[in-house]
Amino acid sequence: MSFSSCQEKIDDYLILRSWIISEMTYKGNDLKPYLTMNSLNFKKDNKCVIPIYDDGGVVYKSHKKAKWLITADNKLKIESVKEYLNGEFEICFGKDQMIKSVYIIIKSKDLYLKAYRGNFGEGFKDDLPISCNEAI
């Protein structure tokens, strides 16, 4: 698969549905209990809605001005004012046989995020653009 066709397949996978976050750690700290929005959404116009966590103050809104793209080496680049989801990330996709759902892992030195496709079962039989068995 060429980079461009792989990039297109990754784009298609990202924008199909919301991704429901099941795990999220940043610099060793579990952020999942503090998320005010438990999903990650990628839009066709290369904008994304990322979760915000409440670190002691009252936070109710997601960050909707973030931008994303897939780089030539198939990494996810997110431009955001939120430090924990800003930069280049390794990504891969997997299939959870028990719940018949596709998941994504987004990973860097400081971040580990695992999220499931919002519509369980959708895309489960599809070939994955970057399999977690091969990548991370």
Order of helices and strands: HEEEEEEEEE
What is the CATH topology descriptor? Lipocalin
| CATH architecture group name | Beta Barrel
* Strand ordering within the main sheet: 1-3-4-5-6-7-8-9
Number of strands: 9
The amount of beta strand, in percent, is: 35-45%
The percent range for helix content is: under 10%
The largest pleated sheet is described as: 8 strands, antiparallel, barrel
pLDDT below 50 for ≥5 consecutive residues: which ranges? Answer: none
- Helix/strand class: mainly beta
Average pLDDT figure? 80
What is the alpha-carbon Rg in Å? Answer: 14 Å
Question: What does this protein look like?
Answer:
This protein is mainly β. The chain has one domain (3-117): Lipocalin, CATH 2.40.128. It is 10% helix and 40% strand. The chain has 1 helix and 9 strands, in the order αβββββββββ. It has one helix spanning 3-15, and strands spanning 19-26, 29-30, 39-42, 47-50, 63-70, 76-79, 87-96, 101-107, 111-117. It has an 8-stranded antiparallel barrel. A hairpin with a 7-residue loop joins strand 6 (76-79) and strand 7. The longest helix is centred in the N-terminal third of the chain and has 13 residues, at 3-15. The mean pLDDT is 80.
SSE inventory with pairings:
Blueprint: H1 3-15, E1 19-26, E2 29-30, E3 39-42, E4 47-50, E5 63-70, E6 76-79, E7 87-96, E8 101-107, E9 111-117
Antiparallel strand pairs: 1-2, 1-3, 1-9, 3-4, 4-5, 5-6, 6-7, 7-8, 8-9
How would you briefly describe this protein structure?
The protein has about 140 residues and is mainly β. The protein has one helix spanning about 5-15, and strands at about 20-25, 30, 40, 45-50, 65-70, 75-80, 85-95, 100-105, 110-115. About 25% of the residues are buried.
